[in-house]
């Protein structure tokens, strides 16, 4: 978290010093700030691991956007075609997430994807109950959701 704060501060400093208060200039400042933090990371203990986190976040965003588009297309196709193809159902997915923040993030990411909705977490916080519109293959759905969970947990661990 320290690296992200320093990156933001360097980006804001870039905007203030350049005098251009546009969003594009802030992005340029964030990129220059990131490059600076990558260069000084070996000397600053608090920045350990920060340079690897940004590519992980970008890979996750790409993955999530791909999943989001695919789910939207599938739901849209089902809505626009006369015979409905959905087979709704509820599944229980064992969680690798342990902290409240991790569980909340995984549950929200699943709920953000059209066709799935997080319903509840077991009392021992080891199982997430999910409603799915398309429960054709339960194991495939569980595998896809586990991949989303593992990619999301990469961001925190």
From TrEMBL:
Keyword Repeat: no
Chief location: membrane
Subcellular location: Cell membrane
Segments crossing the lipid bilayer: 12-40
Alphabetized UniProt keyword annotations: Cell membrane, Membrane, Transmembrane, Transmembrane helix
Membrane topology summary: Multi-pass membrane protein
Record Pfam families: MNHE
InterPro entries according to UniProt: Cation_antiport_E
PANTHER family in UniProt: NA(+)/H(+) ANTIPORTER SUBUNIT E1, NA(+)_H(+) ANTIPORTER SUBUNIT E1
Family: Belongs to the CPA3 antiporters (TC 2.A.63) subunit E family.
Protein name (record): Na+/H+ antiporter subunit E
Species annotation: Billgrantia campisalis
């Amino acid at each position: 978290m320290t690296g992200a704060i320093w990156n933001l501060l360097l980006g804001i400093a870039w905007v203030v010093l350049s005098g251009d208060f546009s969003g594009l200039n802030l992005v340029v400042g964030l990129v220059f700030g990131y490059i600076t933090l990558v260069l000084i990371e070996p000397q600053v203990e608090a920045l350990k691991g920060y340079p690897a986190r940004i590519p992980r976040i970008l890979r996750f965003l790409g993955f999530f956007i791909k999943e989001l588009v695919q789910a939207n297309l599938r739901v849209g196709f089902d809505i626009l075609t006369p015979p409905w193809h959905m087979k709704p159902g509820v599944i229980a997915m064992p969680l690798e997430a342990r902290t409240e923040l991790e569980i909340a993030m995984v549950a929200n990411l699943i709920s953000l994807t059209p066709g799935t909705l997080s319903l509840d977490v077991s009392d021992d916080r080891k199982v997430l109950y999910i409603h799915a519109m398309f429960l054709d293959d339960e194991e495939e759905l569980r595998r896809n959701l586990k991949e989303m969970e593992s990619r999301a947990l990469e961001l925190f661990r």
